[in-house]
């Protein structure tokens, strides 16, 4: 496995996050700044509506005009990621990491590296995420990417251990619990552990039968 890229160490706490509208107005002046704010708001709205191709040209222009606004680089990276342009998304989200000092997009960034076969970077970002002690949801997202990378390399037992570590069925599962359980059940099935897979898929289905294809997976294993 090749070495991960060299990164500027993260600060102990993320940098203060200034309002992007204020940054745009300060960087571009009142007239151009207000126009840029409208473009950013339109891009954010298009992103939320999953109109990624519509958002992309708006953000490309904003990045050109104001390259050091963290929120713009973040959203640009997320749009590129959703369009499957992983190398470009990786570059944007790596720069967002530097500008913000944040691990907020580490799971997406790690998934870009995973898509490009940069396994050492997936590992490095997982360690950095863990050291930052973020929310349980964010840690779960990172764990899912790490397990997926292990599975991509044919390391199913290791991938299973990644998702099993510290895992127990919560009495009141949230979305990230269900997605972790679904991913673990999928790995169990791929590893030939059908009874465990069936049991866990059934548990997921009992809480959210609309999650992915869980109902089909239950029927296939019954």
Model description:
- The chain is mostly helical.
- It folds into two domains: 1-134, Serine Threonine Protein Phosphatase 5, Tetratricopeptide repeat; 135-221, Tetratricopeptide repeat domain (Serine Threonine Protein Phosphatase 5, Tetratricopeptide repeat), CATH 1.25.40.
- It has twelve helices and no strands.
- It has helices at 20-28, 30-48, 52-65, 70-82, 86-100, 106-115, 119-132, 136-152, 156-164, 175-190, 194-207, 214-221.
- The longest helix is centred in the first third of the chain and has 19 residues, at 30-48.
- The protein is elongated and about 65 Å long.
- The N and C termini lie far apart (39 Å).
Entry keywords:
single chain; 222 residues; mainly alpha; Serine Threonine Protein Phosphatase 5, Tetratricopeptide repeat; 2 domains; 0% strand
Termini Cα gap: 39 Å
CATH architecture of the largest domain: Alpha Horseshoe
The CATH fourth-level homologous superfamily of the largest domain = Tetratricopeptide repeat domain
How many domains make up the 3D coordinates?
2
* Secondary structure category: mainly alpha
Our Rg estimate from Cα atoms comes to 20 Å
Low-confidence stretches: none
Largest sheet: none
In total, the number of strands is 0
Give me the secondary-structure topology:
Layout: H1 20-28, H2 30-48, H3 52-65, H4 70-82, H5 86-100, H6 106-115, H7 119-132, H8 136-152, H9 156-164, H10 175-190, H11 194-207, H12 214-221
Helix pairs in contact: 1-2, 2-3, 3-4, 4-5, 5-6, 6-7, 6-8, 7-8, 8-9, 8-10, 9-10, 10-11, 11-12
